[in-house]
Amino acid sequence: MLKCRLTKTITHSIIMNTHIQHALHQLNQLILGKETVLQQLFTAILAGGHILLEDVPGVGKTTLSHGVAAVLGLDYRRVQFTNDMLPSDLLGVNVFRPNEGKFEFHPGPVFHEFLLADEINRASPKLQSALLEAMEERQVSVDGQTHALPAPFIVMATQNPTEQLGTFPLPESQLDRFMMRLHMGYPAAEAEKLLYFQGGKRASLPALQAVCNAETLRLWQRQAAEVKFAQAAADYVYRLVAATRQPGRFVLGLSPRAGLAVVSAAKAWALMQGRGHVVPEDVKAVWVAVANHRLQPVQQGMTSAQLLADLLNHVAV
């Protein structure tokens, strides 16, 4: 019985990885030269987390979100956040039906499997809180009634640099709800030249092929959660987290919730590599992306990502 179950698990893992590699190949043709970012993004999705993309406008964040939803076969909605948006514009509203003498709930755009929250830091803190509560609870409450969100429910939020006009920076407690913060950056020279030569890639979005659907993705997420995580791996994650709490590096260290996010992401990364257990390289692969937005350096001149990468060189495996 155990041998049969193990063989079935391995077979499912091989099929999943084949499909994900096909999805990544399609997206690599859409967004040139960003293979690592795409792998980390898929890792966060398999781990059941949300993604924050922080970058300057015009590097392909919106196109990437369209592409990811398309290859995963998910119901997609893009919402452009502005400073005059109300929570009801996102969550939905109860409308009174005079003929029936009762209220009927009209769901807002948050009721989609894949939601792009475009320029989230242009929205007011009240609207940001409404979205991030939905991300955490996977449900919304309107006029005292609770409405469950679809499963899976994935939020990809984009954020412009905070020094730009008209932005409301996300506080640390809300940033903590995102599993990863990723930076696309400008494309490499050869990739950008190829982009100019071939033209924009948005026209190729309809040609993308879905490799799964919502039900299959939920199965993959369950498989990622079941990846074995040994005591030694837990000890290693704890040493990394504890190192962020030592004085002199960060204003505040990582919380246990952040440590759990590292564990979940490492499991998903291991599954994408075709393994049923976590090794130190899996933790290292996701460490910076999971932790960098949760920390503020004490000294100016060093970013949290640089300090976190340095910890990997000093904390014993």
Give the helix/strand layout:
Elements lengths: L1 H29 L4 H12 L4 E4 L6 H12 L3 E5 L6 H5 E6 L4 E6 L6 E5 L6 H13 L1 E4 L2 E4 L5 E6 L12 H4 L4 E3 L6 H10 L15 H12 L5 H14 L11 H17 L7 H12 L12 H11 L3
Parallel strand pairs: 1-8, 1-9, 2-5, 5-8
Antiparallel strand pairs: 3-4, 6-7
What is the gist of this entry?
By secondary structure, the protein is α/β, with parallel strands linked by helices. It has helices at residues 2-30, 35-46, 61-72, 87-91, 125-137, 172-175, 189-198, 214-225, 231-244, 256-272, 280-291, 304-314, and strands spanning 51-54, 76-80, 92-97, 102-107, 114-118, 139-142, 145-148, 154-159, 180-182.
Describe this structure in words.
- The protein folds into two domains: about 15-210, Rossmann fold, CATH 3.40.50.300; about 225-315, Magnesium chelatase subunit I, C-Terminal domain (Helicase, Ruva Protein, domain 3).
- Helices cover about 50% and strands about 15% of the residues.
- The protein has twelve helices and nine strands.
- It has helices at about 1-30, 35-45, 60-70, 85-90, 125-135, 170-175, 190-200, 215-225, 230-245, 255-270, 280-290, 305-315; strands spanning about 50-55, 75-80, 90-95, 100-105, 115-120, 140, 145-150, 155-160, 180.
- The strands form three sheets. The chain has a five-stranded parallel sheet. The protein has a two-stranded antiparallel sheet with strand order 3-4.
